Amino acid sequence: MSENTPISARQSNNEQRRKKLLTALGGVVGASALAAGGYWFLYGSHFVSTDNAYAAVETAQVTPEVGGTIREVNVIDTQSVKKGDVLVVIDPTDAKLALAQAEADLGRAVRRVRGYVANDSGLSAQIAAREADEKRAAAQLASAEADFDRAKIDLQRREALSASGSVSGDELTRAQNSYAAAQANLDAARAAAAQAKANRNAAIGTRDANAVLITDATEETNPEVALARAKRDQAAVDLERTIIRAPVDGVVAKRQVQLGQRVQAGTPLLAVVPVQDMHVDANFKEVQLENVRIGQPVTLKADIYGGSVTYHGTVEGFSGGSGAAFSAIPAQNATGNWIKVVQRLPVRVKLDPAELQANPLKVGLSMTVKIDTRNRG
Q1: Which of 114, 229, 334, 343 yields a CA-CA distance of 20 to 30 A from 69?
Q2: Is residue 109, in this structure, part of any structural domain at all?
Q3: Cβ-based neighbour number of residue 376 at 10 Å
């Protein structure tokens, strides 16, 4: 445009150019908004993400099941161990002595039960002997009764004849003495018969008492033997427990045990972290979880690798309550002034074991989690 062009014409041209630029800018903004809206509607709205996520695992706490003095400590923090590896050894001296005593008690119980069985035969023989004694006493009693009856009759006859003088006083005295002796013998025979019967009953009671100890049980199943065997087995288990082994594969952490330390059952010694079973707890806002379902695919990145490593996993489950609900001091929303705060719910994400083995994680590392919610089956 030349300098001779009127000012009004130049202004008009500038305004037209400005309108075209604004129109073009508006078109670009509108197209961008439309593209962003389309992206969000068709793709972006099907994903939820959070950086409030951390690697976690069910740590295995190692505690002794018996007390004693620590004789060996075979691991240190950060050391990798396999399931069954010996971690700590407790001095087994006391446990060995307890096992020896329990084995001796078992042997004594077995012999005692065998004695019960042997006594049963002996007591049966005693009953037979007492029954023979009872029969002999009964025969002696019958003889004494016959002697008494004869002596009584003789005395009565002589007493009847003594009035007429047919029997001398001496003969009458002898008859009276014979009667008294027969009476005494009868009383003794009766007592002997009663004693023989009592002895037989006592022998039967003794056998019955002994039979209670062995009836309906063999030597192996007898309660005394079973109790002693259980104590022996418990002592053997306690001896075995003096060797503390790794419960799972993992990495040793929080080792607190020292050589020579005296520990009691249940004292925390160390922890084994099964890093190969690591999962991620992702704390999503409650408003993000409307379309999240178990089994949906998840992509994750770990801050430790600077985002260069991508993990793949699936939604494994949801916590039973929000973090605030399980906090040490839960919020009391029913009292006082109340301000609504969006809560977060932990979502458990299972990781691909192969990826986890290639790029190990540690408990508590920060993660970024994105869930694909397109599959809502």
Answers
A1: 229
A2: yes
A3: 10
Least confident residue range of 33-42, 54-63, 192-201, 247-256: 33-42
User: Whose CA is closest to 51, among 369, 321, 325?
Assistant: 369
pTM attached to this predicted model: 0.67
Q: Are residues 78 and 169 in the same domain?
A: no
Residues 192 and 115 in one domain: yes
Q: Which of 355, 351, 352, 354 is nearest to 281 (CA)?
A: 351
Sign for the pseudo-dihedral over CA of 356, 359, 361, 366: negative
> Which structure tokens are listed for 52?
């409030």
pLDDT at 122: 74
Are 75 and 164 part of one and the same domain? no
Looking at residue 296, its amino acid is: Q
CA distance 261 to 160: 107
Q: Residues 277, 352: contact at Cβ < 8 Å?
A: no
Does residue 53 fall inside a structural domain? Answer: no
- Kindly provide the residue ranges of all beta strands, DSSP E only, lying in the chain, ordered along the sequence: 47-56, 60-62, 68-73, 80-81, 86-90, 243-245, 250-253, 262-263, 270-273, 279-285, 297-302, 310-318, 344-351, 366-372
Shared domain check, 80 and 159: no
Neighbours of 138 (CB within 10 A): 15
**What's the CA gap between 67 and 265, in Å, rounded?**
5
Q: Is 34 buried (19+), middle (13-18) or exposed (0-12) by CB count in 10 A?
A: exposed
| Residue, of 138 and 297, whose pLDDT is higher | 297
Contact 55, 367 (CB under 8 A): yes
Residues 102 and 234: beta-carbon distance below 8 Å: yes
Tell me how many domains the chain contains.
Answer: 2
